[in-house]
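anyone seen this seq b4? input:
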Amino acid sequence: MSEFKTNVMRILDKNKIKYNAYEYPHGKEPVDGTTVAKLMNQNPEKVFKTLVTKGHSGDYFVFALPVEEELDLKKAAKSVGEKSVEMIHVKDIMKVTGYIRGGCSPVGMKKEYKTTFHQSAEGLDSIIVSAGKIGYQIELSPKDLIDFTKAQTADIIKS
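predicted toks r here
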């Protein structure tokens, strides 16, 4: 583990939220979440990816789900009370979140967006999400993360 601190880590430190930081080998290109879980020797069911969508209303929504699962756009829209949601374009990730693809965290985005975690998070002892930079992840209590991001949980994955 390095002494490197991402903005996400600084935000959690400031709010006295306990976490473990991990660094995994990486290049400049993002790798998929399943690969990240393997590189970290972690169960992919507790490593969550962060996806950003835009609703029919024009509002943005954040969804966090296990890396091997696929977001069900209909269930996701229903969970946030939207008629529909669609994934934002890769070119818009930085503008909307302040993060780059592969380093998007549910913590510390430019604005607070309504966030939904897949309901499986509630049954886990710990959850791993991006620390806001490619090559860095944080592990923390799902309850702490859900409370801090003012998130909800719902069934948002494809069956």
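The chain has one domain: 7-154. Helices lie at 7-14, 33-39, 73-79, 93-97, 142-148. kinda curious what u guys think
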